[in-house]
């Protein structure tokens, strides 16, 4: 075989491309279950963090099973399922495309042991999904047993600008949420994200300086994603 011929070069290149493609495909399939497990554990970490339960990823699933008492699926302000796996696996990116009355969304019920471990405090946890400047934003907001007062919140993003919109993940932003309300006398208000330095009262937090579009995205996400739950709590 003439190793200097064009035919040999083309054949060798083709074989190498096929071999590399097979190896990459095999690696991807082999890692798929691990990747799915990591995503599941990270989601559980975020759910728990919204009620102040911070755990390593390796401990997330066991702690989630202990803390999350049940998961309901809510539609039109009513419970339509109590299957916890079905609720956990709801795709919020797809769910929020439906109208508030038509979408099916999960509601997490948490029971967090008090410091003396002799009693528990119960919370509701609500998932969020919206749009930022460069991609999706998401998060979890937890409420006290009254279904109205915020206990905690955490947010994530795919590609917001570091030092600007990405600041929605920092305590500077999330620490504003505890104590805020989502309804007043049974009427849904949401929590507005306003110009930095102008928030006041129970229904607003300061946005991110220089991250106006991301702040607006979080504002819209809160209004859109909290509404179905406010109706549920009103009807309980």
Report on this model:
The protein is of the alpha+beta class. It has one domain. The chain contains six helices and ten strands; from the N terminus they run H-H-E-E-H-H-E-E-E-E-H-E-E-E-E-H. It has helices at 6-49, 57-67, 84-88, 92-95, 171-174, 212-235; strands at 68-75, 78-81, 104-113, 120-131, 136-143, 150-157, 183-184, 187-188, 192-194, 204-206. The strands form three sheets. The chain has a six-stranded antiparallel β-sheet with strand order 2-1-3-4-5-6, with helices on both faces. A two-stranded antiparallel sheet has the order 7-8. It has a two-stranded parallel ribbon with strand order 9-10.
Offer a few descriptive terms.
10 strands; 236 residues; two-stranded antiparallel sheet; single chain; 25% strand; globular; 39% helix; six-stranded antiparallel β-sheet; alpha+beta
